[in-house]
Amino acid sequence: MKRVEMTEAGDSFSLYGYVHEKIDGVTLPGAGRPAILICPGGGYIRVSDREKNPPAAIFFAHGYDTFILTYPVGDDAAHLKPLAAASRALARIRGRAGKLGIDPERIAVLGFSSGGHLAASLAVHWDNPLLHEKIPDVEPGSNRPNALILSYPVLINGIHAHQGSVENFGRDDERIAALFSLEKFVTPQTCPTFLWHTADDVSVPVENSLVFAAALAAMKVEFECHIFAHGQHGLSTCNREVGTTNELCAQWIPLCFGWLDVLFKHKP
Fold it and tell me: Which residues form the BD-FAE-like domain (predicted)?
């Protein structure tokens, strides 16, 4: 395992990753390893520690290079700054894929809670003109995920919205606020998606995942959705390390591997 620092001078975000080091005599098939960009949650107010390294370690152990994004939050979350940060982060990983030994066509984005909103925003807004006004240096398409993984995500506005995320995302700009409810922007070009949620989540209602899944189905986008009956919000990896042990909900991890490994033709 090798830690790589990806943050550059002038960035409004931090990005680091864990990549597999080359082993003498071992040749991997294809263009390189698949990779995961992780967007932790926190209501666009903070960035949750429990959704950083713990999931990164699990995906790394399964053969994925993993990258963790700490994006602008609080007062800095307005004006699409988190989405601009995620776009630059994904484009940077893809731009350095050859050097890092990563397949640029097998990069997924994993988001938790409001980080799920950020990840899904990247999946549906990667080519939005409002976004590219903020990131003229990023080539459209270089910031498009190849797959999307959403854990108890914030996705919609209205009666089932996570109001804190709504307020922090669209503060003082009606044009940006109109982009919040992501099911409205799903198209046939949206990348394949894996979602999981708990039915009794009181912080981010399960309707967020159900409405988005319905939009994916309507556009005939490949997706897999798992709803567990019980579990608190913010489960992350559902184990003792993150203080949220839940053996049933922990099945999201092997279920996700089963889906993503087939999609990416990955053999761990």
Answer: 33-216
Does pTM surpass 0.85?
Answer: yes
Tell me what the mean pLDDT of segment 100-115 comes to: 97
Domain locations along the chain: 2-20+30-264
Q: Give the whole-angstrom CA distance, residue 74 versus residue 68.
A: 19
CA atoms within 13 A on the CB side of 142: 18
φ, ψ (nearest 5 deg) of residue 57: -65, -40
- Number of residues that make up the chain: 268
The β-bridge relationship of strands 14-19 and 65-70 is: antiparallel
Please give the structure tokens belonging to residue 225: 């959705």
Question: What is the structure's pLDDT at 214?
Answer: 98
| Of 85 and 163, more confident | 85
Tokens 């932790």, residue?
A: 40
Which of 110, 117, 209, 120 has its CA nearest to residue 163?
117
Taking alpha carbons only, the member of 106, 108, 190 closest to residue 155 is 190
For the stretch 151-166, pLDDT in tens is 999 998 766 554 656 6
**Which residues are 148's β-sheet partners?**
109, 193
| SS3 category, 224 | strand
How far apart are alpha carbons 172 and 51 in whole angstroms? 29
Q: Kindly give, in sequence order, each residue whose CB lies less than 8 Å from that of residue 69, ignoring residues fewer than 6 positions away.
A: 13, 14, 15, 37, 38, 39, 40, 85, 86, 89
Tokens coding 168: 């922090």
CATH class of the region 2-20+30-264:
alpha beta
